[in-house]
Amino acid sequence: MNNYTESKIYTVSKLNKYIKKLFENDFNLQDIWILGEISNFKLHSSGHMYFVLKDKESQIRCVMFKGNNYALRFIPGDGMKVKVRGDVSVYEKRGEYQLYVREIIEAGKGELYLAFERLKAKLKDEGLFSEEIKKKLPLIPQNIAVITSPTGAAIRDVITISLRRFPNLSILVVPSLVQGTFAAQEIAKKIDFLNKYFKDLDFIIISRGGGSLEELWAFNEEILARSIYNSKIPIVSAVGHETDFTISDFVSDLRAPTPSAAAEMTIPDKNNLVNNLSLLKSKITRAVKRSFEVKTENLNSVSKSLKYQGPENRINQYYQYIDEFGARLNSRIKHLVELYEERVKKDSQRLDSLSPWAVIERGYSICRKIPGKEIIKRLEQIEVGARVEIIISDGKILSKVEKKEAVLN
Amino acid sequence: MKNKKKVEDIPFEEYLRKLEKIVNQLEEGELTLDESVKTYEEGMNISKICLEKLNKTKKKIEQLVIEGEEKFSTKPFFEKKGEDTVNDY
């Protein structure tokens, strides 16, 4: 009964860990595709998806973590036939094996989807989608070409919207199949043809309205992708609806979600441009006018200050100085003249009062020797018996000196 | 050097950028009188060129008819309304 040794007893977790390793080391269980039908689908609030994949006879538990399922292009549901890709492993806590799903595709679309993903990966690796090689579209396209069905809604939308936005546009419609086996090849050929004979085109829109994945398939083919890549003329891809992505979208220079959007995105609104131009023009005129005004004002103030310092003003200043000086001079001279006149008058009055005649008038007389007419002021000037003349106010008296008598005072 | 380039070869957006630059220059008001007269004239000339560029193209909707490897012609394109089928889409 006790024929086992302690060393052979496993714990449960050790056992499950061991089994898990077995699963994970078996490459037949890793990265495999399984076909089945979804049932018991649950999207947990954590974002992880839990469901059961089954066929008529059997089933397996599946989990798809948030990190893998965010890229799903559809929401899985019960009863959906799908192909899932993943690894089989063990959930140790419960001791249950399950499928860890990394990718789900709807079974019906499987082949195309796989082809799409394969080509996308391949062309991406080759650098066909690289942003650096994308050509820039001109702001004002003048000549554009649209490769599409000439009878579809897509061409109608593109033409209508383009002309509404820019009424004088030249559009070259290049009819082509847009679905079916030969469509991709035909579109590719037309792109090559336009590159050869219509080098002046501003860009080419390749377009098709919405449809199923199969109907849009031409735009997922390598031959078209290569032709778009090789085109010297920029290519705008406008295929299907917003949610449809094609290889053409990735490799083209611009992806438009729909044909209408292609026109909206690539054709400028002429009215806007014209308005913008006249706005710029009036801005220029206004700015120049204002700078003229400012300069005129500056000029005025400069010329004003120049006048203050300039020769004209100096001369005027001198004129004024001279005028003032002249006036001052005049009044000064006048004053001087008056002053002199006054003085002369006064002097002459004084002279009058000093005149001997005035004294003689008052009764004095002058006695002069004869001859000689020397005025006698002292006794010693004259001898007794000499003749003298005495001048009085109205004549002279001739007389003889009889006696000299000194006056003692 | 730019003068050597023909007006037709210079894209509209380049002229538009020039015009915006001129507006800025004039609005800054740092130019001399001579310069602003020159710049003003240049701006007016460029806006004329821009307008000409906008009006240059004639409206033309044509359809390409390929008649062989190197043979083709164009004819006026008329929308065929009411003829689309699902396949034509």
Largest sheet of chain A: 5 strands, mixed, barrel
Radius of gyration from the alpha-carbon trace of chain A, in angstroms? 66 Å
Main sheet of chain B: which strands, in order across? 1-2
Largest sheet of chain B: 2 strands, antiparallel
How confident overall, as mean pLDDT of chain B?
79
The ordered H/E elements of chain B are HHEE
Helix content of chain A: 40-55%
Molecular shape of chain A: rod-shaped
Of all protein chain pairs, which has the greatest interface, and how many residues does each chain bring to it? Answer: A-B, 53 and 47 residues
User: What's the β-strand tally of chain A?
Assistant: 13
- How far the N terminus sits from the C terminus of chain A, by CA atoms, comes to 200 Å
Keywords:
heterodimer; A: 409 residues; alpha/beta; 5-stranded mixed beta barrel; rod-shaped; B: 89 residues; alpha+beta; two-stranded antiparallel sheet; 46% helix; disordered C terminus
Task: Please characterize this protein's 3D structure.
The complex is a heterodimer of chains A (409) and B (89). Chain A is α/β, with parallel strands linked by helices and 409 residues long. Chain A has helices at 12-25, 66-69, 110-126, 153-165, 183-197, 222-230, 247-251, 259-266, 270-309, 311-354, 356-361, and strands at residues 32-43, 49-54, 59-64, 81-91, 96-106, 143-148, 170-175, 203-208, 235-239, 254-256, 366-369, 387-392, 395-400. In chain A, the strands form three sheets. In chain A, strands 1-2-3-5-4 form a five-stranded mixed beta barrel. In chain A, strands 7-6-8-9-10 form a five-stranded parallel sheet, with helices on both faces. A three-stranded antiparallel sheet of chain A has the order 11-12-13, with no helix packed on it. In chain A, helix 7 links the parallel strand 9 (235-239) and strand 10 (254-256). The radius of gyration of chain A is 66 Å and the shape is rod-shaped. Chain A starts with 11 loop residues before the first helix and ends in a 9-residue tail after the last strand. The mean pLDDT of chain A is 86. With 89 residues, chain B is α+β, with helices and mostly antiparallel strands. Chain B contains two helices and two strands. Chain B has helices spanning 12-28, 33-56; strands at 60-66, 72-76. Chain B has a two-stranded antiparallel sheet. Chain B is rod-shaped and about 65 Å long. The N and C termini of chain B lie far apart (50 Å). Strand 7 of chain A pairs parallel with strand 1 (60-66) of chain B.
